């Protein structure tokens, strides 16, 4: 995690990514920590992921040497659809959770992770949900509120999720 300091009622986050220092000031500590996590939380991908490489030219050594280790990543994730954030969630196992959304029919065409400790995930998730107000989170939040206060006009979440994705 980057360095967070308070100065004159503002919170300054400083990070070092790829040997370049970045900093930004915020009105509260949570926002500063979320920004720092976002800056540092980029997930590494295979060196061949963005290259046009013929699959016939890769050797077993190249594949094994460039394989990403399968590790349990915890943090928050963003599901994107088009150029919008459709959903924000947290998980102790990010890859598995994103796959579950895909298998359950949630429509998205991209995802992004912010890696962090489980203890920080709830704070970051809440911050970004409030900041971006993604449509699927709004549906789930409304359903949770209705579950606490019974409402005769109950919404079928599966039906609503499908209609939002269109």
From TrEMBL:
InterPro entries: GIY-YIG_endonuc, GIY-YIG_endonuc_sf
Record's signal peptide: none
Residue ranges of every copy of the GIY-YIG domain listed in the record: 73-142
SUPFAM superfamilies linked to this entry: GIY-YIG endonuclease
Gene3D superfamilies: GIY-YIG endonuclease
Name listed for the protein in its UniProt record: GIY-YIG domain-containing protein
Organism of this sequence: Aromatoleum anaerobium
